[in-house]
Amino acid sequence: ISNSVPDIQGFIARDGDSKELVLALRGSASIIDIMVDSAIVLVPLITPGVEAPSGVRVHSGFLVGWNSIAIQIISVIKQQLFLHPDLKNLVTTGHSLGGSLATLAAICLRRNFPSLTTRTYSYGAPRIGNKESADYFNDEFGVNASRVVHSNDGVPTMIPTSLGYHHHGAPLNTGRRRTLSREDSTKQCSPDGEDPRCSASVPSEGVNAAHMTYFGILATTPFCI
User: Fold this and answer.
1) Does CATH number 3.30.1460.10 belong to domain 2-218?
2) Phi, psi (rounded to 5 degrees) for 184
3) In this predicted model, what pLDDT tens digit does every residue of 29-41 receive, in sequence order?
4) pTM of this structure
5) Which 3 state secondary structure label does DSSP give 82?
6) What backbone phi and psi angles, to 5 degrees, belong to 66?
7) Are 136 and 103 in contact (CB under 8 A)?
8) Residue 86 annotated as catalytic
9) Kind and range of the H or E element at 9?
């Protein structure tokens, strides 16, 4: 999945054993991506198949980015369902910008494919919308959404709440260890999304060392979706 403007990249994989499709979306990797990140005006959530409550507002750049590939992805998934009617699950995932796009993708795809169980996983993603959007997303997904923040990653708090933004879901904060093998390296935070015990209390340092690596994987290379 790709386009030149606004330079959104990703791929769809099929896991035959788990009867699952996985949509992975790339984080920021170009000047155009940075322009998408910077378009922070809150706008109504308008995307194929979704009728969101009237108060829901989301990041305009992320929405433009997702909508630029939405029809293409919906078409590919329809084709996969035709070829593999036993498919049961759909997963969206991404790091940074990719995580924000994956969140919007999950909302859209859940509405377009209600027969599939949709789950979403984001890593180091910034806030994507207002409190109403967070409540809407939480109502739609509950435990089927995981938002992971590594240590003092500065990107999740880069867009401040003072601009009307609010995180969705209960984040899983990981410590400085390379993996999740130790219980004391993780913390399950409040489902409100802005738990002061977790990343909400971390002053944003922007793109820092903690943002670059998740679970020991360098997530900011051109080789990692």
Assistant:
1) no
2) -75, 0
3) 776 777 887 889 9
4) 0.89
5) helix
6) -65, -45
7) no
8) no
9) none
Q: How far apart are CA 111 and CA 185, in angstroms?
A: 35
* DSSP conformational letter for 93: E
Using the structure block, give the residue that is written with the tokens 């995307």.
47
What length is written for the chain?
A: 225
Lowest mean pLDDT among 80-94, 169-183, 192-206: 169-183
Judge whether residue 16 has pLDDT over 70. yes
Could you say which of 37, 135, 153, 195 is catalytic? 153
Domain spans of the chain? Answer: 2-218
Task: Quote the tokens at residue 46.
Answer: 């308008």
63, 131 contact by CB (below 8 A)? no
211 is catalytic: yes
Distance separating the N- and C-terminal Cα atoms of the chain: 11
Rg (CA), the chain: 16
| Given 28, 96, 122, 133, the catalytic residue | 96
H or E stretch covering 156: none
- Kindly compute the dihedral angle of the four CA atoms of residues 41, 55, 110, 95, in this order, to the nearest 10 degrees: 30
Q: Contact, 137 vs 176, CB < 8 A?
A: no
Residues 156-184: tens digit of each pLDDT: 999 999 999 999 987 777 765 444 444 44
Sign of the C-alpha dihedral computed for residues 211, 213, 214 and 220 taken in this order = positive
Whether 150 is catalytic is no
Preceding amide of 6 cis, omega within 30 = yes
Separation between Cα atoms, residue 159 and residue 201, nearest integer Å: 13
